[in-house]
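quick one before i forget lol
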Amino acid sequence: MEFDLNHSNHAVGQNCYHLVWKTKYAEPIFNSTAYRKVCEGALRQVAINYGMTIYELQVMPDHIHLFVELPSTMSVSKALQLFKGISSRMLRRQFSFLQDCENLWSPGKFFRSIGNVTSDVIQNYIRYSQGSYQIPDNKLPAYYHQKHLSAFA
């Protein structure tokens, strides 16, 4: 899956993450299809309200997997705060048995940025791009001759 870079007034980039969080005590409260659908709807509503794009979402019985693109001005911690807080409120309103729980979600979280290049490519680009005046073009690795970053050209 190939993603385009987003352009705004003073920025060009991609802000995609794989997010995972669990229910409190890993309780399997989303065993029912109905509960999963309501949770999925709540998470999708949060994304719409705050300008996020969900590429993939999986509600498991005791945890959530989310592949999402955030606005360039939003931090990962803010996105997780919005997803967990608002979905908790919406689920508690919908299902009375959840109102007895002190916390719906565990305080823990997992996040990893998603990109379309590997860390080796980034490391080598930084290592060789700025100092290329010291290295003859014929000594640079072949993948630097294939494509330039068109977003900055």
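fyi Helices lie at 33-49, 76-94, 119-129, 143-146.
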